[in-house]
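Same chain as my last thread, 347 residues:
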Amino acid sequence: MADVSLPRLGGRERDRDDRGDRGRERDGADRDEDRAQIILITGLTLAVLFVAVVLLLNTVIYTENLATRGADAGGAEAIEFRDGAVDDLAGILHREHRNGSANVTESFGASAETYGRTVGDLRARDGVIAAVRPNLSTVEEGYFIAQNETDDGLRNMTAPGSNGADWTVAGNATRTRNYRLTVDPDSLSDSTSGAFTVVADGRTDGTNETWSATLTRETDGDLTVTVETANGTTAETFASPPDENHTVDFTAGTVNGEPFDALVWAEWVQTDGDPYEPYDVRYENGDQARGTYHLVVDDRDDGANPGRPLRPYVDEAIYSVEVDLLHRTPELTYRDTVRLAPGERDA
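reply #2:
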């Protein structure tokens, strides 16, 4: 048999093959190492980019939140300052009317100036520049009509200097504000027939509509207020307050501090446009109620006469005045001009 066998490689050929195999192994290993390094570098780069993006977004969100929070805080402080100043000046204005100053505009200006300096000094301690300046050139004149308690106690709601039960409190008014009446329930009638009634009566040169609110007593001392307008009649009963006397705020629309939606002062009578329509404020059956009241009207040509000894009495008043306000902090400068007319029906 023939001897058939594969030729053996010579030494050189084996060496070449071994070197080729080792070269291929090194080339494969190098390529693997290169790919691993590329993947590692890419991953590190992406990680750095993600971290940078996250930090950037966090910085933007933090800055926005900080700026918003700072603006809100500064704005809230400025609004609080404005509302506080308006309330304080309203109290000062009412006090000047009560005091019966010979020149109420001058007296109010002096008191408001003192108030403004005090507020400015107090705010300066907190690093705030604050100013409160009433513009007396914008004063709208009016009349303050009031009945206080007498030495003998509460007085009937009758005409001054007489026992006239049906009479005009203020004639030819076009606007009324801060109208508040306090009444002893024991003095009221328990029936709407012949009961004490507050009337806003439109004149023939105005709307000629009539609005009225009648006050009656319930058996337990509660108060029923019956409002009659051109749109109909609405009645609601209110419990007695701790001091037993009832307080009706006609222009704020409240009874003993509780809202009474139907109690919209002089609805259909007092107009909101320009020119305003005139009307009379009257009392009917004033001998069927004892109490106190005060109101401010923009005009009058009839009704209670000026003079402190009488009850009710009339004094010249400020119906409205504009006030300039400034509140400045490092973050915010707030300026505003507000019209001070406390107790208007839409205030």
